[in-house]
Amino acid sequence: MPILRLAIPTPLRSLFDYLPPAQMSPAEIAALQPGCRLRVNFGRRQLQGYLIEVATSSELPASALKEAGELLDTEALLTPTLLQLCLWAADYYQHPPGEVLELAFPPGLRDGKPHQPPGAASWTLSQRGKGLPEGALGRSPRQAEALQLLQQGGAVAGTVFREMGISTAILRQLEQKGLAERCILPPAAMAPQPGPGLALNPDQAAAVSGILADYGSFASHLLEGVTGSGKTEVYLQLITHCLQQGQQALVLIPEIGLTPQTLERFRSRFGQGIVVLHSGLNATERYAAWEAARTGAAGIVIGTRSAIFTSLQRPGLIIVDEEHDSSFKQQDGFRYSARDLAVKRAQIEDCTVVLGSATPALETLHNALQGRYGHQQLTLRAGSGELPAIAAIDVRKQELQGGMSAALRDAVRGTLEAGHQVLLFLNRRGYAPTLQCHDCGWIAQCRACDARMTVHRRQRRLRCHHCTAGEGLPNQCPQCHGNRLLTNGLGTEQTEDVLRLQFGAWPVHRVDSDSMQSRGAMQALVDEVGTGQPCILLGTQMLTKGHHFPGVNLVAVIDADALLFSADFRGEERMAQLLTQVAGRAGRAGDAGRVLLQTHYPDHPVMLAMLRDSYAAQARRMLEQRQQSGMPPCGRLLLLRTDSADATTGEAFLGALRRKAQDRLPAGCQLIGPLPSPLQRRAGKFRSQLLLAATDVRQAQQAARLLVAEATQLPARNGLNWSIDVDPLDLG
Ligand code: ADP
Ligand code: ZN
Ligand code: ZN
């Protein structure tokens, strides 16, 4: 008796056996393809399951098996290689396979909708619409405009209307009048047309030929190139080669690196045939993009983290740009690393993967130095820019205004007066991180977290940066009713005020997630700064990724110390990456530019290293330290986390888990904890954790399976939740 083994999106980490639907003939059952969707009754719910295999037997007796419901697909909608990747990832990250497989489908196909023919969602004139004279609908200008576009002939993609500012609502009105109808535009017209590339410099040429040398079968490469060294041009020429082979390229970029600027570089080289997967797409667009990738209609697929789960008909090349970026690791739910999965996927697809960065993660660098990855290096800036010089400003005993010393203020003024732009980096948004009563010492705390509230003066609110809590800014102390409330510490709003006071003659642009809320805000800013007029950019991490500001000649880090005393073993690596990336914004046009770091610790060894050594040199030294400490990449970590309504349940659970598992762990594994998490209470939940350190990946995998199997058996009281994080990036 054939058994259908299904992955079903539930929190259970297993596959589920069902009997085939009664009406299915043996021949139909034999023809079923893994990856097909079927409706199933699961408990009291109707869910969608994904066929993993047709098995010949089950551990359960046939009488205990339910019959599966309707078959939704006659052929699998994901490629066998992507199915393989999903199952590998479910096992590696110890996540329920059904939840992983869902990511391989666009939202509509996750809940039982039928699959529609390939193509882009488009609109065309109805019979009645065709009979209408030109210039009709004069009383409704937007509808008339839409009609006019349709009257020019053929079908028009929904995205074209959206780009012209014509909303779906307008088109729906035409549909209701019986003038327009929906259709699917066949994808034939989408092949990219590569334009000519730049003449490569010798480093770039060596990188391209090094990577193409083993093109056509599995190979991983690190492209380590200083900021502005022309990594993007290398990607573009590799993609051109891939397209010439009739293959598709997948490009992953960090969450906030997916800017119109980035896309424009791809569009102007390749024209059409690019699909972009990002959070701004509506369901129809997402469906069309997924379909174009899956059927091979799109030559180039660009997306953030989750795009790694997009089926490709003929994959030839996978690129991960800014591969060190933490947004490639999902930090909740299914905690996968898209960068690591990109390498695994290239192995499964038997194709080339390129990880590019000016500041490679130590994991990646380690693989390259060990010879597991090819290693291409670009050590010089392409074009005319030179790498900027970095200097420290010792701010001890200095009078600071908005966090800026007199030396920094002078440098800002000098740069503006010379007609250049200034970029100031301060990685703390809001006005101040603390509000305190001068009379009694009260400090504004978040009620739900072990954290202080941040003062946001523009919004006149106190906000917690760890949860959604917020309240109006008080006028008096809630404890003693005194009205002398002090703000301590510095945020971008405060520095912005000082900059406006002192440099009022020049525009000041604050760039953080508060000021960049609206959709077009970043683009408007980039356009304005692009004019090259002198101005000041003041911003957080947001400023350091994906953007090119060629007119910036001075970059300053207002508080370099903020990064210096991290408890995390990756603290120094993060600091070096961030400062190098910030510094890399300077001197992109001609002049070398200058980078200034304000610090109270100009003699701290890490600060000295920042000033003296390139990232490449620092990274190699940090790798030696990791070798000694056995920390990743020279060892592996797993983190088990719990959250619960009280302080003791989580530690008791992890303590019990430790006792059950510790004698059976592979040799060389070490458990640390249970301990309260660094931020013990967040959003009203108490959090604790148990860390496992292993010497290699095989041990870590064995330990992960054991710990998850044991944790699943333990009773979870008081609403306790637990999760496992394989290769955690964040130990908090
Ligand atoms: P990266 O991605 O490494 O930071 P970019 O790709 O942004 O660097 O390149 C920096 C600048 O150098 C861009 O303006 C780019 O157009 C230019 N550039 C890159 N390669 C070349 C080349 N071979 N010849 C001339 N200019 C180049
Ligand atoms: Zn008080
Ligand atoms: Zn909070």
Explained architecture:
Strands 10-11-9-12-13-8-14 form a seven-stranded parallel sheet, with helices on both faces. A six-stranded parallel sheet has the order 15-25-24-16-23-22, sandwiched between helices. It is built from 21 helices and 29 strands. Strand 27 and strand 28 form a beta hairpin. The chain is of the alpha/beta class.
What shape does the CA trace take?
globular
Number of helices: 21
Q: Given this structure, which CATH class of the largest domain is correct?
A: Alpha Beta
Strand content: 15-25%
Using only C-alpha atoms, the radius of gyration works out to 28 Å
What name goes with the CATH superfamily of the largest domain? P-loop containing nucleotide triphosphate hydrolases
Distance between the termini: 49 Å
Distinct compounds present: adenosine-5'-diphosphate, zinc ion
Please provide the count of β strands.
29
